[in-house]
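lol ok so funny story. i was supposed to be doing the assay writeup but got distracted and ended up predicting the structure for this chain instead. priorities right. anyway since i did it might as well share w the group, maybe its usefull for someone
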Amino acid sequence: MWSLSSEKEVIGKTVVRVFSTPMAGAGGGTQGAADVAALVQEVEDSIEPLSCDHNLAWWNVNTEATEENERQRAETALAYSNRLADAEQFEAIVRARESGANGPIGRRLDLLHDLMLPHQVPASLRERIVELETSVEGRFTRHRGVVRGDEVDDIEIKRILRESDDVAERREAWEASKTVGAAVADDVRELARLRNESARALGHRDWYALSIAVSELDETKLFETLAACDKATAKPFARWKATLDRRLAERFGCETTELRPWHYADPFFQETPPDGAVDLDPLFRERDIVELGKQTFAGIGIDVEDTLARSDLFPRAEKCQHAFCMDVDRAGDIRVLMNVTDNHDSMDTLLHELGHAVYSLGFDGALPWLLRDTHLITTEASALLFGSLAGQRDWLVQVLGLDSAEAAALADKLRATRAAELFVFTRWVLVMTGFERELYANPDADLDDVWWKLVSRHQLVTPPDGRRAPDWAAKIHVALAPVYYHTYLYGSIVALQLQDALRREAGGIVGTPAAGRILEERLYAPGLAERWDRLVMQATGSPLSVDSLAREVSASH
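and the output, tada:
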């Protein structure tokens, strides 16, 4: 069992005094510049091993939810937080930023400031947050719903919702998917209160505002973009869903007004159901999903063999039921956690997670550790770009081996399905972003009511009659990836712009090494050396724009 070394425990818990006197030459003197560079390097060097230790512990607890692994996760999280909380180093960074440092050193100072700022709160508060996060994470990993007396995992619940015509079974499966929410809801509210306490101690309105501020986004512009996405998708989504609802009502022998959440094909209606799209699942039965993933990236000149070899890809008990990619050390140890099965969703998810992985594989090796990282928006753009390939004609023919004539016959339906995927997911993101803003505005509000009002408004789903349950808490992101969901929508938009650029400059993506080179050179290699918005301009030739989303969803009618 991996554990912290005693040396690293000391580093994590001891204050290292760095530049406790004002730095000379503020504004450009040679000695001042050297001092700033030394400060940045020393802080980075102290953070790097603790970050790696924390990542490994986090990986371990998600692959096996034992008490020992949960303890290690909490210990390493605290050691890492303690280092980032070093008030003296943080003050030195603030002074260095005020000295007018620019270029690569200025960029690293900005990133260190934003990384350390949320930790500049009392140790007791940080410890309580870590303790609760660890506890909630363990419960998510271990939890299984019950359907007809048997414990079932998320894969089985989604299978029932996609395939079963038994409405009673569907309802039981949907309700089983929400039981984890009741198990963690009180602690999720408490996490929101504690995070707010931290944010307000640092002069921010709440945790939502702080999170946006330290991720190089502007909250006003964010919600202007979300409003534009709402406007672009509302009408086409309503038309598409009306058609879907008629099909579902016919399938289940009821009126459209009687449809409830369990009539849709996943627990949160965040994915396009087979009834409203091309059902590609039969094409993936008994296919080697992992091998198809390797072939996809080999076709653009990127080798993912080593990443897959160190990954944990198949379902089992005591393992996280979700999917993620982790760059453990920013030096090549990149891993994917998944629960692979032989369907389209699993193929999409594997390509998505490998889209994160190849971003980290593509960093310029000369970058300092701090810059060998991804911005949340651009890494999601890479992931969503590749995940979408599993439903595109070129990939189905060249990688999956679908007959060209069959693929040609599906072409129009595939385009319409892609449009539906975009507006279904956009409407879901609007629910999540709206809910989290309300959660941090008032963690003690009637969140059950807030949740279902947002679902009704954005997804046009009728709540279960008389439902009073913390269904919102069943979404793991609310507890453990707070204020993150908007990055998926921004990433979707950037992915569309990348797709356009690659078609224009490389002739496509699938089987096109030139596309891989463009991504590596323009998007991946710079790491965090550039802000996300500049990377988008560099990689796509235009700033982020909702126009690309509006154009794509118009394909639905």
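The first helix runs from residue 6 to 13. The longest strand covers residues 324-327.
back to the writeup now i swear
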